[in-house]
Amino acid sequence: MRATTTWTRRCAWIVRTRACGRNEAIARAMNAKTVAERLKETSTAVILGSGSATRRAILSGMNIEYVIEKPDIDEKAIRFDDPEVLVRALASAKATAVREKLAERGEGARRLLITCDQVVVHRGIIREKPTSASEAREFIRGYGLDPPSTVGSTMVTDLSSGKSASAVDVNTVVFDEIPDDVVNAIVDEGECMFCAGGLMVEHPLLQPYLKRIEGSMDGVMGLDAQTVERLLNEFV
Questions:
Q1: Strand, helix or coil at 45?
Q2: Coil, strand or helix: which one is 122?
Q3: How far apart (Å, rounded) are the C-alpha atoms in residues 200 and 33?
Q4: Element (H or E) spanning 113, and its range?
Q5: C-alpha span between 189 and 201 (Å, rounded)
Q6: If 0-12 CB within 10 Å is exposed, 13-18 middle and 19+ buried, where does residue 64 land?
Q7: Given a cut of 70, is residue 12 above it in pLDDT?
Q8: Average pLDDT of 4-19?
Q9: Which of 122, 172, 183, 208 has the greatest number of CB atoms lying within 10 Å of its CB?
Q10: Phi, psi of 50 (to 5 degrees)
Q11: Which domains does the chain have, with CATH numbers?
């Protein structure tokens, strides 16, 4: 999810610390190299098909070098009632769009493309980016009454072979009741308008009301690091 400039660095540091520690622990336990090290050794380039600041922070926190190619698709044209089907379809459509953009570029290195999508499900309803400030207020206020869940899809595509692997992660966020002044302050900043469901779990104003996350913080923020590592491991 997108973060404001004033606290993106803090958020990125937290993500980087968690991801690095987890990756190093896994590598030590397996007496193996991290996926970032194997990517470098095999000269495998990584492309992130997203402009999200927090997704960039999460991937950087895994010590993975990458370039960005933003997909150009009409997300509203892709509709499914099942949130898992929807996010898989959107991640796949983004992969196709980026592949078409890169088709004419003859870069020698092998390339792996990471595309993602996420929606928020609240009270059984799929919520994407708010369309108005009043809708954003309604969304955020409701999260303090009933827990929202994030449903995210991550797809890794080998651009040389066309082979892909994908996975869906679901995380539930439990809040205490969120005061109206906090809701209004978050909406007035405007950044929540760029987030699925207007949900910015990493926002400092929400921290006092965050009880627990059933899942992972990075998954809620738009890119689950363990899922990314597992999918990349299928290719390197």
A1: strand
A2: strand
A3: 33
A4: strand 110-122
A5: 15
A6: buried
A7: no
A8: 44
A9: 183
A10: -165, 145
A11: 5-232 (3.90.950.10)
